[in-house]
Input
Amino acid sequence: MGSTLYDKVFDLHTVRDYGDGRCQLFIGLHLVHEATSPQAFAMLGERGLSVAMPERNVATADHVIPTDTVARPFLDQLGEDMLTRLEENTRDFGLRFLSPDSGQYGIVHVIGPEQGLTQPGMTIACGDSHTSTHGAFGAVALGIGTSQVRDVLATQTVTMNRLKVRRIQIDGQLTPGVTAKDVILHVIHELGVVGGVGYAYEFAGEVIDAMSMDERMTICNMAVEGGARCGYVNPDDTTFEFLKGRPAVPTGEAWDRAVAWWRSIASDADAAYDDVVVMDGATIRPMVTWGINPGQSVPVDGLLPLPENAAPEVAASYNEAYDYMDMKPGTSLGDYPIDVAFIGSCTNGRLSDFLEVADALKRTGARVSPGVRALAVPGSNAVREELVRLGVDKVLQEAGFEFRLAGCSMCLAMNPDKLVGRELAASSSNRNFKGRQGSPTGRTMIMSPLAVAAAAVNGSVCDPTAVFGAADAPLAS
Output
């Protein structure tokens, strides 16, 4: 019987088996940002400890970075204080810091792959739940809490239980207008927001095999929104093509050896899984969330569900969501005008996301509806520079989008980009929790970048193909 990628990587990185279900796991790469590291560094200082392996720890600032200017000091004092602390800690403990001054900065889950730091067969940890993004490369990538950030800094290890593995096989072919974001929202809709608890999700099948790395990152990014601790895709030629030539990736003979090993780490054809779910990609529609968790979603042209048709515990959550969102069962999301359109985040702030939107806007000459505030925020400075080089910034601006500097922006609003009052946002981010985008009463609907652009143009949620038609080529993430 063969093994899964998860089990191979877990076994290779196990330092100690405690015999009670817990194992001490070596972490090959630790990514650090300003939001969850200050307390961890402080705990090291209190104990007189150093960072065990500084060369395996790389830092950036993303959550608090303003997207209108990175001139110092920041107007937001908390953000300025957190960035200052990260600068001090990385200097004092000897960590590499991809700072705004370096030009290499960006969202941690964008710059890791961009720099080639993320590689197949690795264990990767970061004090951020969406570390699962890096699983797109065939890594076991784990979001950890602040106390575990301290442990990784001090020992380069974490303690955890081995997960079960669920293979989610999506076969067939996606229809025009359906993107990777729609696929993962469909998965979460079908399996639930707690369906993955205790599992690692292995994404596979014809639909996944045909996806670009950007698309696979979108899928794995939101595995945690389905309750899974991590999600991954087995490495293949698409993975290797993306990685080749990136700064941290081996070259020459070392590259050939790396690729051979990366191929070997993939799940075996006869691997045993704890569960297998098979889905038909042709049945997936563009999806939009309507409620207060990512599982509360409908097809873009569907009607909001009736609580009376749901189980009692589900009906209660529906009623809570309807009260908060100020929406009514049986209506269409197109009935609710949006105030804000946001394209960006670690889920959908990559080059292909903006190229797809820019192509649709340029091809149709569509413009943002009056009264809609539309933000386009690249996930890294490198993405932004490439968009400027290609002239995409002008296309977005001419259509009515604000083209901003790189950062997390309105995904979680630990920076000046926030919803105001009861504003309703069409967002390409990953969470629609109460108050997630900065206002305690603000409302968020999650969808693909293409659907965000369509909503911005239409003034409310609609089928992207109704606004932009069907692109000639398959759509990106």
Summary: The chain has two domains: 5-161, 289-468. The domain at 5-161 is CATH 3.30.499.10 (Aconitase; domain 3).
